[in-house]
Specification:
heterodimer, A: about 300 residues, mainly alpha, about 75% helix, B: about 425 residues, alpha/beta, seven-stranded mixed sheet, five-stranded parallel sheet, disordered N terminus
Amino acid sequence: MTVILNQSFTGISIGAVLLLIALGLTLTFGQMGVINMAHGEFIMAGAYTTYVLQKSISSAGVSLLVALPVAFLVAGAMGALLEWLLIRRLYTRPLDTLLVTWGVSLMLQQLARDVFGAPNVQTAAPDILTGNISLGGGITFANNRLFILGLALLSVLALTLILKLTPLGRRIRAVVQNRDLAEVSGIATGQVDRITFFIGSGLAGVAGVALTLVGPIGPTMGTNYIVDAFLVVVVGGIGQLKGSVITAFALGVLQAVLEYSTTVSVAKVIVLIAIVAFLQWRPQGLYTLRTRSLA
Amino acid sequence: MSGFSISRRGLLAGISAVGASAALSACGAKTGDSTSTGSGAKADTSGDTVKVGLLNSLSGTMAISEVTVHNALLLAVKEINAAGGVLGKKLEAVSQDGASDWPTFAEKAETLIKDDKVVATFGCWTSASRKAVKPVFERYKSLLFYPVQYEGLEQSPYIFYIGATTNQQIVPALDYLKKQGLTKLYLVGSDYVFPRTANKIIKAYAKANGMEVVGEDYAPLGSTEFGTIVNKVKGAGADAVFNTLNGDSNVAFFKEYKSAGLTAKSLPVLSVSIAEEEVKSIGTQYLDGQLTAWNYYETTPGAANTKFVAAYQAAYGKDKPTSDPMEAAYISVYLWKEMVEKAGSFDVAKVKAASDGIALDAPEGKVTVDGATQHVYKTARIGKVGSDGLITEVWNSGKPIKPDPYLKGYTWASGLS
C-alpha cells in the first residue's frame, strides 16, 4: 500500500512536470501550429534566470518567488522576439518552422554555454521545499513535487481563464479557428500571434524554474524534455488544453508504474510503443477541435 | 493557420529524426582510424625542452571535472620546471581539448604524438575516452598516464593507470560496509560501462561474503528523474546504497533522496564518483554525512599534501578544492619524471623497463609503481562528507594495497572478466 501510494505520487509528479513543459507548447504548437523546437531552450532560459536571481538574491525562497514572474517575462520576450524575427514569415510552412527553430535552439544552447560556461550549474532549493509531508508508514509527499504540482495546476487554471473569459482569449480562439474571418472582423492577427507566442514561451520559462527544483541546469536541459512535451500535445489532441492535461498525468502514471515493475530505460521504450499504438488507433489524439477550417 | 494541415506522421517522423540525430551525435564512439600505420612517430628530445601532452576535456559535459585535472597537471609541470626539469630539459606542456567527445580524444591523441612529438601524454577521464585513445597509444608506442579510478579489467602496455583499480576502491568500500554491519545493499548507477562492471564485481563480492544485493537500478546518463528509483530504494529494506551514478545525475538523485526523507543516518549512501569538486557543486546540504571511497582527500594528513593544497590554491584560488583525480594527475607527472631519470632516457621502452618500484611520497601517502601491471600501490580511504563540504577520512587500509586490475587475488571474482 505504501509503495502504491508513493509510486502514484511519483507518477503524478512526473505528470506535473510533463504538463508544465507541454503547456506552453499546447498554445504555440497546438493553437498556432508552429513546431517550435526552441521551446526547450525557453525552458533553459527560465532555469538560468532562476540561477542568476539566486546569485544576486541571497534568500533561496525569495529568489524562487521572484524567478517565477521574471522567468515568464524573459522566456516570453525571447519567444515574442523569435516570432517577430522568423516565425511570422513561416506560418504557411509549418515543417520549415521545425528546421528554423531547431537551428535557433542550437544557437541558444551555444549562447548559454558561452555565457554560463559548459559545466552544468545548480540552485539551492529553499529549505521548505527540501523536506516532505509524511503521512506515516513511510508514505511521503516531497514538498518540491507538491510545489511543482501546484504550479502546473495554477498555470492550467490561469491559461483556461485567459482563453475562456478575456477578450484576448476570444481573439486567440478566433484566430485559431479561422484566421481570415478573424482578420476581416478587425482582429489584428499579427499582434494576437505575438501575444500568444509570448504567453506560450513564458510558460516554458515557468517550467524551467520548476525544473531547477529537481535537477541540474545546463545548456542542453531543454532537449531532454522537448520530445516528451511534443508527445503530450500530440497524444492529447492538437490545440486541446484538456487533452494535454489528461495525457500528461496519464503518461506520468504509466511511466511510474512501468519504471517500478521494469527499469527506467525499458519503461521509456514501452511508453513510446504505447503512444505509437494509440496514435494508430486514434490519429487525431484524445480530443479534437471541431471547426470548419481545420481539416 | 487556416488552410494548413499537417500530417501527424510527418510531424512524428520529424521529431524522431531530430531526436535520433541528437542521440547519434551524443554517442558516436569511433575509436580512431585503424588504417594508419604511423608507429615510429618519434618523440622529439633533441632540443633544450621536451613536450608533454595534456589531454583533457576543457569543454563539454566533463569539463567540470577535467579542467581541475588539467590545472593539477599544469601545476606539476610548472613545479618540475622550477626545480630544473627532467634530465636537464625543461618541459613544455601542450594542451589539447578532448571536448567530452571520444572520437575527438582519439584524434587529439594522434595530433599530440604525431605533430607535437610529445614524450608522454597525461589525461583522459571517462573509461570511454580511455578506450578510444588506447589503440592510438598502442599503435604509436607512446605513453599515456591515466589519473582516474576506473572499473579495472584492463591492462595496456602503453598506459600507466595512476588512479585506483577496483581492489583499491570498490572492494575496500565493501569491506568497510560489511564491518559496519551494513550488509543489504541497493545498487544505483548510471547506465554505462563503469557502473555495470562495478556492480558485477559488487554482486560477486556480496555472494561470497554474506552480503545481499536487494536491488539494482540504472538511470540513463544525464537522467534527472529519480522518483521511482528512490521509492524502490525506500521499499527494499536496504542497509546502504552503493552509488555509481556519474556526473549531474547525482544532483537529481540526492535532491530526490533528501525530499523522500532519507538521510545519511537512516540509509547511508556510499559513492565512488563524488569528490570535493562535485560535493561543492551538488550542495553540501544534500550530501551531509554521506560516504565516499577514494585514495585521497583534501583533508588527508601529511606534509606532502599540505604543500600540494597550498600550491594548488596559490595558483588557482583559495576556495578551490583538491580531489583524488587531481592528486593522481599531479603525481603522475612526478612518477613519469622519476621513471625517466632512473632510465636515463626518454625512450618509451626504457622508461617502461625502469618503472617497477618507482616510489613517491605523494599527497595521498606513499605510492609505488607496480611494473607488472603498470598500476600503482595505493592506500584505500573511506570518507564522510562534512557540513563544510570537505570530506574527512573515517577509515583507511593502513598500507598501500597492491593493484590487482583483474582481481586475480580474489577467489570470488574468478567468474569475472
